[in-house]
Amino acid sequence: MLHFSKPFFCFSIDFCAKKEYNERKRGDTVKTDICQKKLYIREFFRVMQSSHKPHKKFLHTAGRARDGLVWVKQGGCKYGIDGKELTASAGQILYLPHGSIYGMEISPEGYEVLFVDFLFGDTSLKKADVFTLSLPEEAEQLFYKIYRRYLAKDASSFCDCMSLLYRIYGKLVAERNATYLPPEAKNKLERARDHLLQNLSHPELSVSELSVIAGVSEVYLRRLFHEGYGCSPGRYLINARLRCATELMGESDMTLEQIALQCGFASLSYFCRVFREEYGLSPGEYRKALPSDLQNGETPKN
Asked: Which range among 2-11, 20-29, 85-94, 271-280 has the greatest average pLDDT?
């Protein structure tokens, strides 16, 4: 990989921004869809939190320095980019391409986001886009996870952030190319999912029980989960329990054993093993690493 000096890098960014602007004026630019072309991530830079107050006028950005993935925590924003309007609302993920020129109009509710700055290896001009995951809470979990690993600044932080960034990108690609489910099949899947989420605290919850609720066989239910959510019912259940546990660790003073039982883990030892497999550290280590404001149930401020 070639490494350029900062002045050269800044010059190249300005040049790309002006090039894109001129090509857009000619109207002959074909932009890459990041979900249709396999792209590798060349460089990871940072994860930041940002909060904007409402603005009646557009805020202008002339030539974005890097690619960005933005998860909207609260409020919304209307972007004027490539002669079109894109609206990003709470729970959605916005992709902003490197070199893009755009305006922003903040909603009356304001605009609070977590964003990741990085660079794709492909230098072609790319299309801005807005994504809505079928499981919005999964987007929240991934963005807070990468934010916490970025703040940790330990020996494995960079590798973990790159891994999580690929996971987020992979979710966007999978969502955009997801298998279509007929309404009847989708309703059955959603009945099973809703029952699962409402009964997380029951350790005995099983795929067999979910299949009865959905009115389908276990084999067909597993197929529906893979087509709809990209994982098995068992994996979905574990992920949901882990999300519940991380929320309780940041928002309550419950003991780890109480949290494990509340989230449906049969024992503290099982909870600790599953948690370490997913996050790379124990629940106790994870809780200690949380910023103090997160431990009080608040979002960390920069």
From this structure: 85-94
Which residues neighbour 138 within 8 Å (Cβ) at sequence distance 6 or greater? 171, 239
Residue 18: give its domain's CATH number. 2.60.120.280
Q: Is the pTM of this model over 0.70?
A: no
Please identify, among 176, 211, 232, the residue that sits at the C-terminal boundary of a domain. Answer: 176
Lookup: tokens for 272: 């600790």
Domain assignment of residue 69, yes or no: yes
CATH number at 201 reads 1.10.10.60
Convert the pLDDT of each residue in 82-128 to its tens digit.
778 999 999 999 999 998 888 888 988 899 999 999 999 988 889 99
Mean pLDDT of 253-260: 95
